[in-house]
Amino acid sequence: MTAYIIRRLLQLPITVFGVTVLIFAMTLVLSPVERSALYMRDFPKHEGALEALIRRYGLADPFHVQYWRWLVGRVDPETGERVGGVLRGDLGFSRSGRQPVIDVILHRLPASIELALWSVVPIIGIGIWLGVIAAIHHNRFIDQAARVFSIIGWSFPTFVFALLVLMVFYAKLRWFPPGRLSDWATWAVMAPEFHRYTQLNTIDALLNGRWDIFWDALRHMILPIITLCYIQWAMLLRLTRSSMLEALRQDYMTTARAKGLPERTVINRHALPNALIPVVTVGGITVVNLVNGVVITETVFNFPGMGSAAASAAQTLDVLTVLGFVLLSSVLFIVANLLVDVLYAFLDPRVRLG
Amino acid sequence: MTVEAVPAQEATQETLFTPEQVEWRLRELTGLERLLGPEWYRILRGLFTYPLSLTGLIIITVFVLVAAFAPTLAPPVRPNADPLLIPRDGFGPEPKPPGAVWMREAPPIPFWYKVLTGKDEWVHLMGTASGQFDIYYGVVWGTRTALFAGFMVTFSTVIIGLIVGSLAAFYGGWLDDLLMRITEIFMAFPFLLAALTLSAILVPKLGRSIWPPMIALIIFGWDRYARVIRGEILSAKERDYVLAGRAVGVRDARLIIRHILPNTIYPILVMASFRLGDAVLSFAALSFLGVGTQIGYADWGQIISFARDWILSLDTHWYIIVFPGTALIVFGLGWNLIGDALRDILDPRLRGARR
CATH number of the domain that A235 lies in? Predict the structure, then answer.
């Protein structure tokens, strides 16, 4: 067990290293001239500006030199100080955000985190519950309905679903508006007497005792949450269902029933814990689906989080910003997967001992 | 079930066929089975007997037919222009609802339209998007884009996955370690965000077309196949027929291609049919996010992205989402139904059990 965790921990830096190499290699698809344009904040004023930039930043150097410089920064020839470098938090300047990429990320992150936090509970809770219900009622109406729901959800593109939801609940019914806060609430949140403890609107509103702002923030998040949930339920339902069916077929279920335990106890205490072990493995997929889903969901609902920033940066071909986001989310994904694997080893004796 | 209520004699008689039926069945079975081999025959028969997979097959057939007969269903306005660019009816910003009459430069009216409606006026059957792009034309010709992109992405990813997976599994050792580490690195990326990034980088290089999103989907899509194929081959490698092949001196490449792959192809088939629908959905998502085809290209995601300008009035401009969105959903559903049925047919645990 310990050896397994240590081995996984040792793999972590290798994977992260590979990810950074790959991300940097992606930029090398562009020629030095094209890349020098990424660093330009203004239109070049005189001839030879691009060449000067290529020389100054060494954009025509061999791959490993450039990669190392990208990672740890370069030594400025005039002052002799080390500037930039991804490891020091310099991801370049975001043209679409008009500030350094790292600031864009920090600025946009709370909104996405808030959205993700509110989505995780219904995703996992309802998704697993649906799967268990379907498995218990195997091949009956609920099961068939769940199957159909899951296969349709599987084929439903997020952005189409999001737009349809928006069409019904916003354009038609005017219940849930897009955006993050209404105008009055935005002003109230920015007012000096409103303390920003966490940057998460709902939590800050509660801490400040402002129920109206809390409700407003939640109202703006309901449609994105539904969208994020819907795509995940399809997958979680299917996985929980098959895993639960497997557990229900085991001999210890017969034993438990033979002991005369009530059906409720048999299912909740004997089948469910075992059925949920494989479900833990989708934890990592849930995280990555959230990241992917957040890109589209936030874009459609005009929710000012990380995902919509990445999408609008990609749309204006602002490469450095998108790279920053992809770097952050891949590292997040790797860590999440590691946690899931460790948790899995912890939960399942077959893995722990094997 | 009251089994004992039915006399044994009757029960067996019900399942028996007349000699003519038996003979006819045998002849038909052997003919087709000889042609396809028992395994493929079983798969094909399964696909045609499960109602869900039959629905999937019908859906995909319809899409293929629409793609094939696109010039008849939605004739291009100018015969010499690229038919995949949606013709425009003027340049007005306000979308027109379905049934609006085509004002200028109407395409030739297809014969079936006159027969069905008896009218001589070509209308926007599914309305227009902002900029007066005809949605009907885009949906019809978009089937070509979807099928092409779907097949290209799936085919390329399967081939790369096959090469990487079989090399890793067959040779093992350091090559396996290296290839699997590389695969893991590719898997560490959130798929959509990575594809979004790469196509955003490729667009300035290649221009707006279907290639940047397709290349991006291929580059970040092969990793899952590689992993599955490696697992399959690892288990196939230990079988007796591989040992036998080795013993008589069959070369490695021939052993992989002629003996191991045919026995591991089925799980790949399941994955590929699922992923084909997925690939088209991801392709449309990239187009929707604006890193794909140029504006006005016949591509479902591209058409749906017009709806983003009309969020406030989506209830009146519903047709911008509903028609291409339905095409996209039904397309994905078709492949998923086939994939679902294939998985059940090929799952040895479910073999022989009818749902």
Answer: 1.10.3720.10
In this complex, is the C-beta atom of B198 within 8 Å of any C-beta atom belonging to chain A? yes
Q: What CATH number corresponds to the domain at position B256?
A: 1.10.3720.10
Regarding whether A297 and A151 lie in a shared domain, the answer is: yes
* Residues B63, A282: Cα–Cα separation, whole Å: 33
pTM assigned to the model = 0.84
Q: What is the greatest pairwise CA distance in chain B?
A: 77
The three-state secondary structure class of B315 is: coil
Helix intervals (H) in B220-296:
222-237, 240-247, 252-254, 261-289
How far is A200 from chain B, CA to nearest CA, in Å? 24
Model confidence at B140: pLDDT above 50 = yes
Please report residues of B whose CB lies closer than 8 A to that of A320: none
B100 within domain boundaries: no
**CB proximity B159 to A under 8 Å:** no
What domain count does chain A have? 2
Nearest-angstrom CA–CA distance, B123 and B134:
10
* Under 8 Å between Cβ of B84 and B145: yes
A227 and A266 belong to one structural domain: yes
- From CA B329, how far away is CA B327, in angstroms rounded? 6
Taking the C-alpha atoms of residue B350 and residue B63, their distance in angstroms, rounded to an integer, is 30
Does B131 fall in a domain?
A: no
Report whether B225 contacts B167 (CB < 8 A).
no
A18 and A139 assigned to the same domain = no
Query: Per the CB < 8 Å rule, is B314 touching A15?
Result: no
For B329, the closest of A26, A155, A296 (CB atoms) is A155
- Name the band, by pLDDT with cuts 50, 70 and 90, for residue B2: very low
Whether B57 is covered by a domain: the verdict is no
Helix (H, G, I), strand (E, B) or coil at A163: helix
Q: Which of B190, B301, B330 sits opposite A329 (nearest CB)?
A: B190
A230 and A264 together in one domain? yes
Range of the domain at A296: 99-353
Say if residues B319 and B94 touch (Cβ distance below 8 Å): no
Query: What's the Cα-to-Cα distance from B9 to each of A74, B5, B116, rounded to whole Å?
Result: 90, 12, 56
Give the H/E segment covering residue B119.
Answer: none
Query: Does one domain contain both A273 and A344?
Result: yes
Output the CA angle A133-A139-A142, nearest 5 degrees: 45
For B205, the closest chain A residue by CA position comes to A30
Structure tokens at B114: 């006159």
Instruction: Tell me whether B72 touches chain A (CB under 8 Å).
Output: no
Domains: count for chain B: 1
CB under 8 Å to A52, separation ≥6 — which residues?
none
Residue B197: list chain A partners with CB under 8 A: 23, 26, 314, 319, 322-323, 325-326
Pair A256, A115 in one domain: yes
Residue of A nearest to B180 (CA): A15
| Under 8 Å between Cβ of A219 and A202 | no
Distance from C-alpha of B169 to C-alpha of B225, rounded to nearest angstrom: 13
Q: What is the mean pLDDT of residues A65-72?
A: 80
Name the β-bridge partners of B17.
Answer: none
The nearest alpha carbon in chain B to A172 belongs to B315
Residues A102-121, mean pLDDT to the nearest whole number: 86
Judge: B290–A322 Cβ closer than 8 Å, yes or no.
Answer: no
The answer to whether residue B275 scores a pLDDT higher than 60 is yes
Mean pLDDT of A235-262: 84
Give residues 321 to 350 of A whose Cβ lies within 8 Å of B: 322-323, 325-326, 329-330, 333-334, 337
Q: With an 8 Å Cβ cutoff, is B285 touching chain A?
A: yes
Range of the domain at B205: 142-299
Verify that A287 and A302 share a domain, yes or no. yes
Query: Which domain-ending residue is among A61, A93, A125?
Result: A93
Same domain, A56 and A201: no
